[in-house]
Amino acid sequence: MKREISIIGIIVKNLSAVDTLNNVLHKYSEFIIGRMGLPYKERDINLISISVDADVETTNRLKAEIESVPEVIANSVCYDVEF
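Structure (tokenized):
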């Protein structure tokens, strides 16, 4: 299948969701290029961005699983790369 580079932005509204979110991300670790997390104390949230190299279906499944975690929201941007 054709692969694409995507960035998924994640907002964690409650720290109790972090363990479940980490389990989801670990499940897709072979597709994750990198990850950056930032606590935003002024708003009491955590921001995470992950870079993904996967086919569209896998990226969509990952995003859906992330969004299924309570107190977590996500959005993605993809770039169609031909190499």
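The radius of gyration is 13 Å. Residues 2 and 43 are 38 Å apart (CA to CA).
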